[in-house]
Design a protein that fits this description.
The protein is an alpha/beta fold and 582 residues long. It folds into two domains: 319 residues, Rossmann fold (3-Layer(aba) Sandwich); 215 residues, Serine Threonine Protein Phosphatase 5, Tetratricopeptide repeat. It is built from 16 helices and 15 strands. It is globular.
Length: 582
Protein backbone atom coordinates (compact mmCIF):
# COMPACT_ATOMS: atom_id res chain seq x y z
CA UNK A 1 0.00 0.00 0.00
CA UNK A 2 1.01 3.65 -0.41
CA UNK A 3 2.36 4.92 2.91
CA UNK A 4 4.01 8.26 2.11
CA UNK A 5 1.51 10.97 1.25
CA UNK A 6 -0.02 14.14 2.63
CA UNK A 7 -3.52 14.93 1.34
CA UNK A 8 -4.54 12.07 -1.02
CA UNK A 9 -6.29 14.57 -3.31
CA UNK A 10 -2.98 16.43 -3.75
CA UNK A 11 -0.80 13.36 -4.23
CA UNK A 12 -0.54 13.55 -8.02
CA UNK A 13 0.23 17.27 -8.01
CA UNK A 14 2.90 16.91 -5.35
CA UNK A 15 4.44 13.91 -7.11
CA UNK A 16 4.60 15.92 -10.35
CA UNK A 17 6.30 18.79 -8.54
CA UNK A 18 8.82 16.43 -6.98
CA UNK A 19 9.53 14.73 -10.30
CA UNK A 20 10.24 18.08 -11.97
CA UNK A 21 12.49 19.13 -9.09
CA UNK A 22 14.45 15.88 -9.28
CA UNK A 23 14.80 15.83 -13.07
CA UNK A 24 15.55 19.41 -14.03
CA UNK A 25 18.14 18.22 -16.55
CA UNK A 26 15.34 16.76 -18.65
CA UNK A 27 12.09 18.57 -17.87
CA UNK A 28 10.60 21.71 -16.46
CA UNK A 29 7.22 22.06 -14.81
CA UNK A 30 4.39 23.49 -16.85
CA UNK A 31 0.70 23.95 -16.33
CA UNK A 32 -0.80 20.47 -16.27
CA UNK A 33 2.41 18.47 -16.57
CA UNK A 34 6.01 18.80 -17.75
CA UNK A 35 7.77 19.74 -20.97
CA UNK A 36 11.23 18.91 -22.24
CA UNK A 37 14.11 21.27 -21.54
CA UNK A 38 15.37 20.36 -25.00
CA UNK A 39 12.84 21.94 -27.35
CA UNK A 40 11.87 20.57 -30.71
CA UNK A 41 13.83 22.08 -33.58
CA UNK A 42 11.97 24.94 -35.21
CA UNK A 43 9.35 23.67 -37.61
CA UNK A 44 9.38 20.05 -36.39
CA UNK A 45 6.60 18.05 -34.80
CA UNK A 46 6.10 18.14 -31.03
CA UNK A 47 5.08 14.80 -29.52
CA UNK A 48 2.89 15.28 -26.45
CA UNK A 49 1.89 12.23 -24.44
CA UNK A 50 -0.10 11.75 -21.29
CA UNK A 51 -2.47 9.91 -19.05
CA UNK A 52 -3.28 9.42 -15.41
CA UNK A 53 -0.71 9.54 -12.64
CA UNK A 54 0.21 6.38 -10.76
CA UNK A 55 2.01 4.69 -13.66
CA UNK A 56 5.55 6.09 -13.45
CA UNK A 57 7.68 6.17 -15.52
CA UNK A 58 4.70 6.59 -17.81
CA UNK A 59 4.25 9.36 -18.71
CA UNK A 60 6.58 12.07 -17.44
CA UNK A 61 9.54 9.71 -17.42
CA UNK A 62 9.42 9.55 -21.22
CA UNK A 63 9.95 13.26 -21.86
CA UNK A 64 13.34 14.13 -23.29
CA UNK A 65 15.44 14.29 -26.48
CA UNK A 66 14.35 11.70 -29.03
CA UNK A 67 11.19 10.93 -27.08
CA UNK A 68 8.24 13.13 -26.11
CA UNK A 69 8.37 16.90 -25.88
CA UNK A 70 5.77 17.11 -23.14
CA UNK A 71 3.53 15.04 -20.90
CA UNK A 72 0.10 16.01 -19.63
CA UNK A 73 -0.37 14.37 -16.24
CA UNK A 74 -3.80 13.69 -14.79
CA UNK A 75 -4.70 12.78 -11.25
CA UNK A 76 -4.40 9.22 -9.97
CA UNK A 77 -5.66 6.80 -12.63
CA UNK A 78 -7.60 9.67 -14.25
CA UNK A 79 -6.88 11.22 -17.61
CA UNK A 80 -5.55 14.78 -17.78
CA UNK A 81 -8.18 17.36 -18.61
CA UNK A 82 -8.47 18.86 -22.07
CA UNK A 83 -7.23 22.14 -20.60
CA UNK A 84 -4.08 20.48 -19.25
CA UNK A 85 -3.42 18.76 -22.56
CA UNK A 86 -3.93 22.00 -24.49
CA UNK A 87 -1.58 23.90 -22.17
CA UNK A 88 1.20 21.32 -22.52
CA UNK A 89 0.73 21.04 -26.28
CA UNK A 90 0.90 24.80 -26.79
CA UNK A 91 4.00 25.02 -24.58
CA UNK A 92 5.73 22.26 -26.55
CA UNK A 93 4.59 23.19 -30.07
CA UNK A 94 7.33 24.72 -32.21
CA UNK A 95 5.82 25.35 -35.60
CA UNK A 96 5.49 21.79 -36.93
CA UNK A 97 2.23 20.80 -35.32
CA UNK A 98 1.54 18.36 -32.47
CA UNK A 99 1.08 14.61 -32.25
CA UNK A 100 -0.90 13.57 -29.16
CA UNK A 101 -0.26 10.08 -27.77
CA UNK A 102 -2.26 8.33 -25.05
CA UNK A 103 -3.63 5.00 -23.92
CA UNK A 104 -7.03 3.98 -25.25
CA UNK A 105 -9.22 4.69 -22.20
CA UNK A 106 -12.55 6.49 -22.29
CA UNK A 107 -11.42 9.54 -20.31
CA UNK A 108 -8.22 9.92 -22.29
CA UNK A 109 -10.07 9.61 -25.58
CA UNK A 110 -12.58 12.27 -24.52
CA UNK A 111 -10.04 14.76 -23.25
CA UNK A 112 -7.32 14.30 -25.87
CA UNK A 113 -9.92 14.45 -28.65
CA UNK A 114 -11.32 17.66 -27.21
CA UNK A 115 -7.85 19.18 -26.91
CA UNK A 116 -7.14 18.18 -30.51
CA UNK A 117 -10.29 19.98 -31.65
CA UNK A 118 -9.35 23.08 -29.68
CA UNK A 119 -5.86 23.16 -31.17
CA UNK A 120 -7.17 22.79 -34.68
CA UNK A 121 -9.63 25.57 -33.91
CA UNK A 122 -6.67 27.80 -33.02
CA UNK A 123 -4.92 26.94 -36.27
CA UNK A 124 -2.42 24.46 -34.78
CA UNK A 125 -2.04 21.28 -36.84
CA UNK A 126 -2.73 18.30 -34.60
CA UNK A 127 -2.99 14.52 -34.99
CA UNK A 128 -3.34 11.79 -32.37
CA UNK A 129 -2.66 8.14 -31.65
CA UNK A 130 -4.48 6.00 -29.07
CA UNK A 131 -2.29 3.03 -28.10
CA UNK A 132 -4.12 -0.32 -28.17
CA UNK A 133 -1.53 -2.99 -27.36
CA UNK A 134 -3.26 -5.02 -24.62
CA UNK A 135 -4.58 -8.16 -26.32
CA UNK A 136 -6.50 -9.27 -23.20
CA UNK A 137 -8.87 -6.31 -23.34
CA UNK A 138 -10.64 -7.12 -26.63
CA UNK A 139 -10.55 -9.83 -29.31
CA UNK A 140 -8.51 -9.46 -32.52
CA UNK A 141 -11.51 -8.33 -34.55
CA UNK A 142 -12.04 -5.43 -32.11
CA UNK A 143 -8.48 -4.15 -31.87
CA UNK A 144 -9.63 -0.52 -31.75
CA UNK A 145 -11.32 -1.23 -28.41
CA UNK A 146 -8.14 -2.49 -26.75
CA UNK A 147 -6.47 -0.48 -24.00
CA UNK A 148 -2.90 0.77 -23.94
CA UNK A 149 -0.42 -0.59 -21.40
CA UNK A 150 3.39 -0.95 -21.55
CA UNK A 151 3.34 -0.82 -25.36
CA UNK A 152 2.96 2.95 -24.93
CA UNK A 153 6.74 3.18 -24.62
CA UNK A 154 7.40 1.72 -28.06
CA UNK A 155 4.81 3.83 -29.85
CA UNK A 156 5.91 7.05 -28.16
CA UNK A 157 9.61 6.31 -28.70
CA UNK A 158 9.17 5.64 -32.41
CA UNK A 159 6.99 8.73 -32.85
CA UNK A 160 9.53 10.86 -30.98
CA UNK A 161 12.34 9.61 -33.21
CA UNK A 162 10.30 10.38 -36.33
CA UNK A 163 9.65 13.90 -35.07
CA UNK A 164 13.32 14.42 -34.24
CA UNK A 165 14.21 13.38 -37.80
CA UNK A 166 12.16 16.27 -39.15
CA UNK A 167 9.44 14.11 -40.67
CA UNK A 168 6.21 16.11 -41.19
CA UNK A 169 3.19 15.68 -38.95
CA UNK A 170 1.04 13.52 -41.21
CA UNK A 171 3.91 11.06 -41.68
CA UNK A 172 4.79 11.04 -37.96
CA UNK A 173 1.15 10.17 -37.26
CA UNK A 174 1.21 7.41 -39.88
CA UNK A 175 4.39 5.95 -38.41
CA UNK A 176 2.94 6.05 -34.87
CA UNK A 177 -0.18 4.23 -36.02
CA UNK A 178 1.92 1.69 -37.88
CA UNK A 179 3.99 1.12 -34.74
CA UNK A 180 0.85 0.69 -32.67
CA UNK A 181 -0.39 -1.96 -35.11
CA UNK A 182 2.88 -3.88 -34.59
CA UNK A 183 2.81 -3.90 -30.75
CA UNK A 184 1.21 -6.63 -28.61
CA UNK A 185 1.18 -6.93 -24.80
CA UNK A 186 -0.17 -9.31 -22.17
CA UNK A 187 0.10 -9.11 -18.39
CA UNK A 188 -0.55 -10.90 -15.11
CA UNK A 189 -0.92 -9.84 -11.48
CA UNK A 190 -0.75 -11.55 -8.10
CA UNK A 191 -2.71 -8.84 -6.29
CA UNK A 192 -4.13 -5.34 -6.55
CA UNK A 193 -2.74 -1.92 -5.76
CA UNK A 194 -3.90 0.51 -3.08
CA UNK A 195 -4.39 4.21 -3.82
CA UNK A 196 -3.06 6.82 -1.38
CA UNK A 197 -5.44 7.16 1.55
CA UNK A 198 -7.27 3.91 0.81
CA UNK A 199 -7.16 1.04 3.26
CA UNK A 200 -7.94 -1.76 0.85
CA UNK A 201 -6.56 -2.70 -2.59
CA UNK A 202 -8.69 -2.12 -5.67
CA UNK A 203 -8.98 -5.87 -6.09
CA UNK A 204 -7.53 -8.96 -4.51
CA UNK A 205 -6.34 -12.32 -5.77
CA UNK A 206 -6.54 -15.40 -3.53
CA UNK A 207 -3.20 -16.57 -2.13
CA UNK A 208 -1.37 -18.80 -4.55
CA UNK A 209 -3.42 -17.56 -7.49
CA UNK A 210 -2.64 -15.24 -10.43
CA UNK A 211 -4.93 -12.93 -12.41
CA UNK A 212 -4.35 -12.90 -16.16
CA UNK A 213 -5.06 -9.99 -18.46
CA UNK A 214 -5.01 -7.25 -15.84
CA UNK A 215 -5.23 -3.53 -16.59
CA UNK A 216 -2.84 -0.87 -15.33
CA UNK A 217 -5.62 0.99 -13.50
CA UNK A 218 -6.27 -1.92 -11.19
CA UNK A 219 -8.91 -3.57 -13.35
CA UNK A 220 -9.16 -7.21 -12.33
CA UNK A 221 -7.87 -9.89 -14.65
CA UNK A 222 -10.13 -11.78 -17.03
CA UNK A 223 -9.35 -15.16 -15.45
CA UNK A 224 -7.29 -16.72 -12.68
CA UNK A 225 -4.84 -19.60 -12.43
CA UNK A 226 -2.38 -21.01 -9.92
CA UNK A 227 0.84 -19.02 -9.56
CA UNK A 228 3.35 -20.79 -11.81
CA UNK A 229 7.12 -20.98 -11.62
CA UNK A 230 9.10 -18.20 -13.32
CA UNK A 231 9.77 -20.45 -16.30
CA UNK A 232 6.12 -21.44 -16.58
CA UNK A 233 5.04 -17.80 -16.46
CA UNK A 234 7.53 -16.98 -19.21
CA UNK A 235 6.08 -19.81 -21.26
CA UNK A 236 2.52 -18.55 -20.81
CA UNK A 237 3.42 -14.97 -21.77
CA UNK A 238 5.32 -16.07 -24.87
CA UNK A 239 2.64 -18.54 -25.89
CA UNK A 240 -0.11 -15.91 -25.70
CA UNK A 241 1.83 -13.29 -27.66
CA UNK A 242 3.05 -15.67 -30.35
CA UNK A 243 -0.53 -16.83 -30.66
CA UNK A 244 -1.58 -13.46 -32.05
CA UNK A 245 0.81 -11.99 -34.58
CA UNK A 246 0.09 -8.56 -36.11
CA UNK A 247 -1.47 -8.33 -39.54
CA UNK A 248 1.21 -8.80 -42.18
CA UNK A 249 3.32 -11.18 -40.10
CA UNK A 250 2.48 -14.76 -41.04
CA UNK A 251 4.99 -16.45 -38.73
CA UNK A 252 7.42 -15.48 -35.98
CA UNK A 253 10.45 -17.32 -37.33
CA UNK A 254 12.94 -14.95 -38.92
CA UNK A 255 11.24 -11.80 -37.65
CA UNK A 256 12.91 -9.13 -35.53
CA UNK A 257 11.22 -7.93 -32.34
CA UNK A 258 11.87 -5.84 -29.24
CA UNK A 259 10.78 -7.69 -26.08
CA UNK A 260 9.78 -5.42 -23.17
CA UNK A 261 9.31 -7.19 -19.83
CA UNK A 262 7.59 -4.69 -17.55
CA UNK A 263 7.27 -4.83 -13.78
CA UNK A 264 4.00 -3.38 -12.53
CA UNK A 265 5.27 -2.02 -9.21
CA UNK A 266 6.51 -4.61 -6.73
CA UNK A 267 7.96 -7.36 -8.92
CA UNK A 268 11.56 -6.22 -8.95
CA UNK A 269 14.41 -6.49 -11.39
CA UNK A 270 15.96 -9.74 -10.16
CA UNK A 271 12.63 -11.55 -10.46
CA UNK A 272 12.10 -10.06 -13.90
CA UNK A 273 15.54 -11.18 -15.00
CA UNK A 274 14.75 -14.75 -13.93
CA UNK A 275 11.57 -14.63 -16.03
CA UNK A 276 13.30 -12.96 -18.98
CA UNK A 277 16.00 -15.63 -19.06
CA UNK A 278 13.32 -18.11 -20.13
CA UNK A 279 11.45 -15.62 -22.36
CA UNK A 280 14.59 -15.00 -24.39
CA UNK A 281 15.22 -18.73 -24.73
CA UNK A 282 11.67 -19.42 -25.91
CA UNK A 283 11.58 -16.54 -28.38
CA UNK A 284 14.91 -17.52 -29.89
CA UNK A 285 13.75 -21.12 -30.11
CA UNK A 286 10.74 -19.82 -32.09
CA UNK A 287 13.14 -18.12 -34.50
CA UNK A 288 12.54 -14.55 -33.28
CA UNK A 289 15.58 -12.29 -33.50
CA UNK A 290 15.70 -10.17 -30.34
CA UNK A 291 16.57 -6.47 -30.69
CA UNK A 292 17.62 -4.41 -27.62
CA UNK A 293 15.55 -6.25 -24.99
CA UNK A 294 14.14 -4.05 -22.22
CA UNK A 295 13.60 -5.34 -18.68
CA UNK A 296 12.43 -3.05 -15.89
CA UNK A 297 9.55 -0.77 -14.93
CA UNK A 298 8.02 1.15 -17.83
CA UNK A 299 4.32 1.34 -16.98
CA UNK A 300 3.40 0.58 -13.37
CA UNK A 301 0.31 0.61 -11.17
CA UNK A 302 1.58 1.84 -7.80
CA UNK A 303 2.69 -1.25 -5.88
CA UNK A 304 0.79 -3.83 -7.93
CA UNK A 305 2.59 -7.19 -7.91
CA UNK A 306 2.63 -8.27 -11.53
CA UNK A 307 4.35 -8.12 -14.88
CA UNK A 308 3.57 -7.77 -18.56
CA UNK A 309 5.38 -8.77 -21.73
CA UNK A 310 5.31 -6.61 -24.85
CA UNK A 311 6.60 -7.60 -28.28
CA UNK A 312 7.33 -4.85 -30.79
CA UNK A 313 7.49 -6.46 -34.23
CA UNK A 314 9.94 -4.44 -36.29
CA UNK A 315 10.35 -3.67 -39.95
CA UNK A 316 13.28 -1.62 -41.33
CA UNK A 317 11.50 1.72 -40.78
CA UNK A 318 10.41 0.93 -37.23
CA UNK A 319 13.77 -0.57 -36.28
CA UNK A 320 15.68 2.50 -37.45
CA UNK A 321 13.44 4.77 -35.41
CA UNK A 322 13.44 2.52 -32.34
CA UNK A 323 17.26 2.49 -32.30
CA UNK A 324 17.59 6.26 -32.84
CA UNK A 325 19.19 8.12 -29.89
CA UNK A 326 16.88 9.07 -27.02
CA UNK A 327 17.33 9.99 -23.39
CA UNK A 328 14.88 10.86 -20.64
CA UNK A 329 14.63 10.51 -16.89
CA UNK A 330 13.47 6.88 -17.24
CA UNK A 331 14.57 5.63 -20.67
CA UNK A 332 17.76 5.81 -22.67
CA UNK A 333 18.87 4.22 -25.91
CA UNK A 334 21.75 4.94 -28.30
CA UNK A 335 22.88 8.21 -26.71
CA UNK A 336 24.66 9.73 -23.76
CA UNK A 337 23.68 12.70 -21.68
CA UNK A 338 26.76 14.61 -22.90
CA UNK A 339 25.27 14.69 -26.38
CA UNK A 340 22.49 16.89 -25.05
CA UNK A 341 24.66 19.37 -23.16
CA UNK A 342 23.16 22.17 -25.20
CA UNK A 343 19.73 21.69 -23.61
CA UNK A 344 18.24 25.00 -22.61
CA UNK A 345 18.86 26.12 -19.06
CA UNK A 346 15.94 28.45 -18.51
CA UNK A 347 12.37 27.55 -17.78
CA UNK A 348 10.45 28.21 -21.03
CA UNK A 349 7.10 28.63 -19.33
CA UNK A 350 5.99 31.04 -16.68
CA UNK A 351 3.99 30.37 -13.55
CA UNK A 352 0.69 28.61 -13.85
CA UNK A 353 -2.16 30.99 -14.59
CA UNK A 354 -5.04 31.57 -12.22
CA UNK A 355 -7.49 28.71 -12.01
CA UNK A 356 -10.26 31.29 -12.13
CA UNK A 357 -10.60 32.39 -15.78
CA UNK A 358 -13.05 35.23 -15.20
CA UNK A 359 -11.48 37.89 -13.02
CA UNK A 360 -13.32 40.64 -14.91
CA UNK A 361 -17.12 40.34 -15.12
CA UNK A 362 -18.78 39.61 -18.43
CA UNK A 363 -21.67 41.72 -19.67
CA UNK A 364 -24.72 40.37 -17.84
CA UNK A 365 -28.19 41.62 -17.01
CA UNK A 366 -29.18 42.38 -13.45
CA UNK A 367 -31.63 39.47 -13.61
CA UNK A 368 -28.93 37.02 -14.62
CA UNK A 369 -26.53 38.32 -11.97
CA UNK A 370 -29.33 37.95 -9.45
CA UNK A 371 -29.72 34.29 -10.37
CA UNK A 372 -25.99 33.55 -10.11
CA UNK A 373 -25.99 32.99 -6.30
CA UNK A 374 -28.63 30.26 -6.78
CA UNK A 375 -26.32 28.52 -9.23
CA UNK A 376 -23.55 28.75 -6.66
CA UNK A 377 -25.82 27.37 -3.93
CA UNK A 378 -26.61 24.37 -6.12
CA UNK A 379 -22.91 23.72 -6.75
CA UNK A 380 -22.20 23.99 -3.03
CA UNK A 381 -24.91 21.40 -2.39
CA UNK A 382 -23.39 19.15 -5.07
CA UNK A 383 -19.97 19.30 -3.45
CA UNK A 384 -21.37 18.60 0.03
CA UNK A 385 -23.30 15.58 -1.23
CA UNK A 386 -20.30 14.19 -3.11
CA UNK A 387 -18.10 14.57 -0.03
CA UNK A 388 -20.58 12.44 1.93
CA UNK A 389 -20.79 9.82 -0.83
CA UNK A 390 -17.13 9.70 -1.96
CA UNK A 391 -16.22 6.46 -0.22
CA UNK A 392 -19.38 4.74 -1.47
CA UNK A 393 -18.73 5.92 -5.05
CA UNK A 394 -15.17 4.63 -4.94
CA UNK A 395 -16.36 1.26 -3.66
CA UNK A 396 -18.96 0.96 -6.43
CA UNK A 397 -16.42 1.98 -9.08
CA UNK A 398 -13.86 -0.55 -7.83
CA UNK A 399 -16.17 -3.49 -8.61
CA UNK A 400 -15.36 -3.34 -12.33
CA UNK A 401 -13.30 -0.17 -12.68
CA UNK A 402 -10.37 1.55 -11.04
CA UNK A 403 -12.02 2.85 -7.87
CA UNK A 404 -11.22 6.53 -8.46
CA UNK A 405 -14.73 7.84 -9.21
CA UNK A 406 -15.32 9.16 -5.70
CA UNK A 407 -12.06 11.05 -5.39
CA UNK A 408 -12.39 12.39 -8.94
CA UNK A 409 -15.89 13.69 -8.23
CA UNK A 410 -14.65 15.35 -5.05
CA UNK A 411 -11.88 17.13 -6.93
CA UNK A 412 -14.21 18.21 -9.73
CA UNK A 413 -17.11 19.39 -7.60
CA UNK A 414 -14.79 21.30 -5.26
CA UNK A 415 -13.08 23.05 -8.17
CA UNK A 416 -16.47 23.87 -9.74
CA UNK A 417 -17.78 25.30 -6.47
CA UNK A 418 -14.70 27.45 -5.94
CA UNK A 419 -14.65 28.73 -9.53
CA UNK A 420 -18.36 29.55 -9.33
CA UNK A 421 -17.85 31.45 -6.09
CA UNK A 422 -15.08 33.48 -7.70
CA UNK A 423 -17.25 34.21 -10.76
CA UNK A 424 -20.22 35.28 -8.63
CA UNK A 425 -18.00 37.58 -6.55
CA UNK A 426 -16.74 39.14 -9.79
CA UNK A 427 -20.31 40.06 -10.77
CA UNK A 428 -20.96 37.51 -13.54
CA UNK A 429 -24.26 36.18 -14.78
CA UNK A 430 -25.65 32.68 -14.35
CA UNK A 431 -24.37 31.40 -17.70
CA UNK A 432 -20.80 32.53 -17.13
CA UNK A 433 -20.83 31.12 -13.60
CA UNK A 434 -21.77 27.72 -15.00
CA UNK A 435 -19.17 27.91 -17.75
CA UNK A 436 -16.46 28.76 -15.21
CA UNK A 437 -17.61 25.83 -13.08
CA UNK A 438 -17.51 23.59 -16.16
CA UNK A 439 -13.94 24.52 -17.03
CA UNK A 440 -12.79 24.03 -13.44
CA UNK A 441 -14.56 20.68 -13.03
CA UNK A 442 -13.14 19.15 -16.21
CA UNK A 443 -9.68 20.57 -15.55
CA UNK A 444 -9.38 19.43 -11.95
CA UNK A 445 -11.22 16.11 -12.09
CA UNK A 446 -9.82 14.82 -15.38
CA UNK A 447 -10.93 11.37 -16.47
CA UNK A 448 -14.19 10.46 -18.14
CA UNK A 449 -16.43 11.94 -15.47
CA UNK A 450 -14.49 15.20 -15.48
CA UNK A 451 -14.84 15.58 -19.22
CA UNK A 452 -18.55 14.73 -19.18
CA UNK A 453 -19.43 17.01 -16.28
CA UNK A 454 -17.52 19.78 -18.01
CA UNK A 455 -19.59 19.19 -21.14
CA UNK A 456 -22.86 19.20 -19.21
CA UNK A 457 -22.23 22.32 -17.18
CA UNK A 458 -20.93 24.16 -20.23
CA UNK A 459 -23.99 23.22 -22.30
CA UNK A 460 -26.31 24.33 -19.51
CA UNK A 461 -24.38 27.59 -19.12
CA UNK A 462 -24.58 28.27 -22.84
CA UNK A 463 -28.34 27.65 -22.79
CA UNK A 464 -28.97 29.96 -19.84
CA UNK A 465 -26.65 32.74 -20.98
CA UNK A 466 -26.23 36.04 -19.16
CA UNK A 467 -29.09 38.11 -20.56
CA UNK A 468 -32.18 36.76 -18.82
CA UNK A 469 -33.09 35.25 -15.49
CA UNK A 470 -33.13 31.47 -16.02
CA UNK A 471 -36.65 30.06 -16.18
CA UNK A 472 -37.87 26.48 -16.13
CA UNK A 473 -38.05 26.19 -19.91
CA UNK A 474 -34.47 27.43 -20.36
CA UNK A 475 -33.19 25.01 -17.71
CA UNK A 476 -35.00 22.06 -19.30
CA UNK A 477 -33.66 23.02 -22.73
CA UNK A 478 -30.13 23.37 -21.33
CA UNK A 479 -30.33 19.96 -19.66
CA UNK A 480 -31.46 18.42 -22.97
CA UNK A 481 -28.48 20.07 -24.68
CA UNK A 482 -26.19 18.68 -21.98
CA UNK A 483 -27.50 15.15 -22.46
CA UNK A 484 -27.08 15.43 -26.22
CA UNK A 485 -23.49 16.60 -25.78
CA UNK A 486 -22.67 13.66 -23.52
CA UNK A 487 -24.22 11.14 -25.90
CA UNK A 488 -22.46 12.63 -28.91
CA UNK A 489 -19.01 12.92 -27.31
CA UNK A 490 -19.04 9.82 -25.13
CA UNK A 491 -20.86 7.56 -27.59
CA UNK A 492 -22.97 5.87 -24.89
CA UNK A 493 -26.68 5.16 -25.17
CA UNK A 494 -29.30 3.95 -22.68
CA UNK A 495 -28.60 0.35 -21.76
CA UNK A 496 -24.80 0.67 -21.93
CA UNK A 497 -24.58 0.99 -18.12
CA UNK A 498 -23.21 4.52 -17.96
CA UNK A 499 -24.33 7.88 -16.63
CA UNK A 500 -26.50 8.19 -19.75
CA UNK A 501 -28.91 5.64 -18.25
CA UNK A 502 -29.78 8.18 -15.55
CA UNK A 503 -29.37 11.31 -17.70
CA UNK A 504 -31.96 10.42 -20.34
CA UNK A 505 -34.93 9.74 -18.01
CA UNK A 506 -33.97 12.79 -15.94
CA UNK A 507 -34.04 15.07 -18.97
CA UNK A 508 -37.24 13.56 -20.37
CA UNK A 509 -39.08 13.85 -17.08
CA UNK A 510 -37.89 17.42 -16.56
CA UNK A 511 -39.04 18.45 -20.03
CA UNK A 512 -42.42 16.75 -19.65
CA UNK A 513 -43.08 18.38 -16.26
CA UNK A 514 -42.00 21.84 -17.40
CA UNK A 515 -44.08 21.60 -20.58
CA UNK A 516 -47.06 20.65 -18.42
CA UNK A 517 -46.59 23.85 -16.42
CA UNK A 518 -44.89 22.53 -13.28
CA UNK A 519 -42.61 24.94 -11.39
CA UNK A 520 -38.91 24.25 -11.83
CA UNK A 521 -38.33 22.98 -8.28
CA UNK A 522 -41.22 20.50 -8.55
CA UNK A 523 -40.22 19.36 -12.03
CA UNK A 524 -36.58 18.96 -11.03
CA UNK A 525 -37.40 16.83 -7.99
CA UNK A 526 -39.62 14.53 -10.04
CA UNK A 527 -36.86 14.24 -12.63
CA UNK A 528 -34.32 13.48 -9.88
CA UNK A 529 -36.56 10.66 -8.63
CA UNK A 530 -36.66 9.23 -12.16
CA UNK A 531 -32.86 9.42 -12.33
CA UNK A 532 -32.56 7.68 -8.97
CA UNK A 533 -34.79 4.82 -10.13
CA UNK A 534 -32.91 4.50 -13.42
CA UNK A 535 -29.52 4.57 -11.71
CA UNK A 536 -30.54 1.77 -9.35
CA UNK A 537 -31.75 -0.25 -12.36
CA UNK A 538 -28.27 -0.18 -13.90
CA UNK A 539 -27.33 -2.89 -11.38
CA UNK A 540 -29.05 -5.39 -13.71
CA UNK A 541 -27.09 -4.25 -16.77
CA UNK A 542 -23.80 -5.45 -18.22
CA UNK A 543 -21.54 -2.55 -19.26
CA UNK A 544 -20.98 -2.05 -22.98
CA UNK A 545 -18.89 1.13 -22.80
CA UNK A 546 -15.91 2.43 -20.86
CA UNK A 547 -13.32 0.69 -18.74
CA UNK A 548 -15.83 -1.60 -17.02
CA UNK A 549 -16.75 -3.21 -20.35
CA UNK A 550 -13.89 -5.72 -20.12
CA UNK A 551 -15.12 -6.99 -16.75
CA UNK A 552 -18.83 -6.66 -17.33
CA UNK A 553 -20.01 -9.74 -15.43
CA UNK A 554 -18.34 -8.51 -12.25
CA UNK A 555 -20.60 -5.46 -12.13
CA UNK A 556 -23.90 -7.35 -12.20
CA UNK A 557 -25.73 -6.48 -9.01
CA UNK A 558 -23.89 -3.17 -8.63
CA UNK A 559 -25.16 0.12 -10.12
CA UNK A 560 -23.00 2.20 -12.43
CA UNK A 561 -20.97 4.69 -10.41
CA UNK A 562 -21.53 7.55 -12.86
CA UNK A 563 -25.29 7.03 -12.99
CA UNK A 564 -25.47 6.73 -9.22
CA UNK A 565 -23.45 9.89 -8.60
CA UNK A 566 -25.59 11.81 -11.10
CA UNK A 567 -28.74 10.76 -9.25
CA UNK A 568 -27.25 11.87 -5.93
CA UNK A 569 -26.36 15.23 -7.45
CA UNK A 570 -29.80 15.70 -9.03
CA UNK A 571 -31.50 15.02 -5.69
CA UNK A 572 -29.19 17.46 -3.87
CA UNK A 573 -29.90 20.23 -6.38
CA UNK A 574 -33.63 19.53 -6.11
CA UNK A 575 -33.52 20.08 -2.35
CA UNK A 576 -31.70 23.37 -2.90
CA UNK A 577 -34.25 24.54 -5.47
CA UNK A 578 -37.07 23.78 -3.05
CA UNK A 579 -35.38 25.81 -0.33
CA UNK A 580 -35.00 28.73 -2.74
CA UNK A 581 -38.70 28.62 -3.57
CA UNK A 582 -40.14 28.49 -0.09
Amino acid sequence: MTRLFNDPTSFATEAREGFAAANGAYVCAAQGGVISRTPAAAGTVAVVIGGGSGHYPAFAGFVGPGLAHGAAMGDLFASPSAQQILAIAKAAENGGGVLLGYGNYAGDVLNFTTAQEWMRGEGIACESIAVTDDIASAPPDHEAERRGIAGDLAVFKIAGAAAAAGIPLDEVARIARHANARVRSFGVAFGGCTLPGATEPLFSVPPGRMALGLGIHGEPGIEESDVPSADALAGRLVEVLLGELPTGIDRAAGKRAVPILNGLGSVKHEELFVVFRRIAELLERAGVQLVTPQVGEFCTSFEMPGASLTLVWLDPELERLWLAPAESAAFRIGATQAEYATARQTDPVGPEPSTHPTDAPTVASAASRGAAPSVLASLEAVHDRIIDAAEELGRIDAVAGDGDHGIGMVRGSRAARDAAAHAVAAGNGAGTVLRCAANAWSDRAGGTSGALWGLMLRALGDALGDREAPDAAAVASGVADAVAAVRQRGGAEPGDKTMVDALVPFSRTLSWEVTAGAPLAHAWCDAAAAAETAAAATATLTPRKGRARTHGARSLGTPDAGAHSFALIAIAIGKTLRKDNR
